[in-house]
Design goal:
The chain contains four helices and six strands; from the N terminus they run ββββββαααα. By secondary structure, it is an alpha+beta fold.
Length: 126
């Protein structure tokens, strides 16, 4: 069963960026063998990367914040594939109790508009 096993201890760097002050772990069932995703100290996140105009409906900080930290890390490191990273985000929001309609909309947003470093890794031959 998927689960967060540690709290997200964050330090605010500026109005929109946060630094992980302690390691952060998430166990996912999206990958085989209940894989652990270990987000290291000093990882920088903006939490949910939502265009400002939508903050009334989807603020950057919400029940889904921990899922956003894991997703940002997967995108930054271009770990696994983009579809897998997006599914981990969807799954993690479910673990956090995010309502299904919000989970689905946020998943669709990252699926269609999220970029991460996947294109850069392809260009670099990874």
């Amino acid at each position: 069963m998927s689960a967060f096993t540690t709290p997200a201890v964050l330090e605010m760097l500026d109005r929109y960026r946060w630094r992980l002050a302690e390691p952060f772990m998430y166990y996912t069932d999206v990958l085989p063998s209940r894989t652990v995703i270990a987000v290291p100290v000093d990882t920088i996140t903006d939490l949910a990367s939502v265009p400002r105009i939508l903050w009334v409906i989807f603020p950057p900080i919400g029940r889904y914040a921990k899922a956003a930290i894991v997703h940002d890390y997967l995108y930054e490191q271009a770990l696994y594939s983009k579809p897998v990273a997006d599914m981990v985000f969807y799954e993690a929001m479910g673990v956090l109790g995010v309502p299904k309609w919000r989970r689905w909309l946020m998943y669709q947003a990252v699926k269609w508009f999220g970029r991460g470093n996947y294109e850069k890794r392809k260009r670099d031959g990874f």
